[in-house]
Amino acid sequence: MACNDKEHLLHAYFDGELDLVSSLAMEEHLKSCAECALDLRSQQTIRGALRSSGLYQTAPQQLADTIRAGVASGAAAAPIAMPIAKQRPWAQWIGVAAAMALIVFAAEVMLNNRRASQNSEALVAQEVVESHVRSLQLNHLMDVPSTDQHTVKPWFDGKLDFAPPVNDFAPQGFPLTGGRLDFVDHHNAAALLYMRRKHILNVFIWPDEAKTERRSETKTIDGYNIVHWDTGGFHYWIISDVSATDERQLAELMGG
After folding, report:
1. Residue 136, pLDDT score
2. Comparing C-alpha atoms, which of 213, 57, 206 is closest to residue 128?
3. 1 pLDDT higher than 80
């Protein structure tokens, strides 16, 4: 097999599209042709890197069927002869380098996005802690002191551009005691106040523009337990000095 045949056969061999006789002939050729062997290894390296990076995706069956139908319908058309330029060895390495650079760039973007998300969440958690402490120390715990959810919920009307869900969980051991306006993560937020055995729980609620659904997570900062989750188009953050078990119970009652 001459090397000038390899441009259109090597790729077919790599993809497993040759018949048995042609495959055996290509294997014999690869044993004696360093250029073709190098080209094959380059293609194998690119495919392996793409698959390990998570960027490789299998085409859906519907797409494969559409392509096959298109090939079948055009099978009768006369083929157009196109000149095939011989690939230079240095071009192979440029292709490999470009593919590897793309993989590294994509991995770095994903890592940076993850770090940015973690940093943003840490900043929100710190804001929640500061708002909780400030509400206790500056005697600004409630703007509307009431145990009646039908009083607290309408109080927010006209003060916020969203309607926070307000419920009283007194039968479950978490009586509603009031609410106030707050500001978290560059958003106006509703702060609901609940009691648990003389301990105050602040529940911060503000809209989630991405409308994500995320299960509750628990963390401890400066001695305060925090539970947060996203659901129903809202961010929820609960903070207090009660046990993490008690906070998770309230979170479950609120849909977290």
Report:
1. 85
2. 206
3. no
pLDDT at 9: 79
Provide the CB-side half-sphere exposure for 78 (13 A, CA): 2
At 251, is the pLDDT very low, low, confident or very high (cuts 50, 70, 90)? very high
By DSSP bridging, strand 224-231 and strand 187-196 are: unpaired
Nearest alpha carbon to residue 216 among 234, 200, 191, 198: 234
Please say whether the beta carbons of 2 and 25 come within 8 A: no
Residue whose pair of structure tokens reads 């290509």 in the numeric block = 26
pTM as predicted = 0.55
Both tokens assigned to 102: 């793309």
Q: Which residue stretches of the chain are H helix?
A: 6-14, 20-32, 34-53, 61-73, 89-137, 149-155, 244-253
How far apart are the C-alpha atoms of 86 and 137, rounded to whole Å?
Answer: 77
How big is the chain by its Cα radius of gyration, in Å? 31
Strands of 144-145's sheet in order across: 144-145, 176-184, 187-196, 199-207, 234-240, 224-231, 214-221
- Strands 199-207 and 187-196, how do they pair? antiparallel
Domains (range + CATH), the chain: 140-253 (3.30.200)
Extract the tokens encoding 180. Answer: 């106030």
- Mean of per-residue pLDDT scores for the chain: 79
- Residue 131: is its pLDDT beyond 50? yes
DSSP per residue, 152-210 = HHHHTBTTBSS------BGGGTB-EEEEEEEEETTEEEEEEEEEETTEEEEEEEEE-TT
